[in-house]
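User: I'll paste a sequence; please echo it back and then give the predicted structure.

Assistant: Echoing your sequence first, then the prediction.
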Amino acid sequence: MDRLIVANWKQNPSTLADALTLAAGAAGLNVPAGVTVVVAPPLPYVASIGQANPFLVLGAQDLSLLPPGAHTGEVGADILKDLGVRYVIVGHSERRALGEMDGNVAAKAQAAVESGITPIVCVGEPRGVREQGTEAVKMFLTSQLASVPDGADVVVAYEPIWAIGSGTADDPASAADIARWIAGLLEPRVKSVRVLYGGSATPENASAFLSDPAIGGLLVGGASLDAVKFGAIVNAT
């Protein structure tokens, strides 16, 4: 399986013109063999970016857990699929901080699978859990990993909450150990799984994370908004 480098732009940039420029930079990267680059822009930009860059692999940052119908403000998997979205992030810690629960994450991941979109299920522990040791981390993650759909091709993004946006990434060896454990836990019940690392991924640390085959790629936040930095991360593989 290819390694995935996923650009999560979050609520950036603030204009479509800037988004198209950023997307063109990602589409123009010299991507190494065996690597797939996914760009997940804010939802209103997805259609325009897809039309301007037809060979760019599109992702979305969230989706509705509801089926088509009278659900004002919701955007379901069927709509994302029609826009050309191939991957969707679910359960990001920034969504969980707003009250999203494991049951909702599971429903969203299942909705994605049923529409032919690969879910990127985000999991990660707060600093207080990490300070209790590895077994406490695994217990915390086990609850979140129950949201991963059975029998599906899935991606899990391991993002320690304390590392996201902090400028302090996890130790690469520790992240690889957790990634290996996640894959081992899920492999008996899924079709395939790739485990990404996320949380202050930068050009400076990308190679260290990707040096262990247990880490199947990176979920990149802030650095994905800089074309030069993102290009360096893509080529760190």
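The mean pLDDT is 96. The chain has one domain: 3-234.
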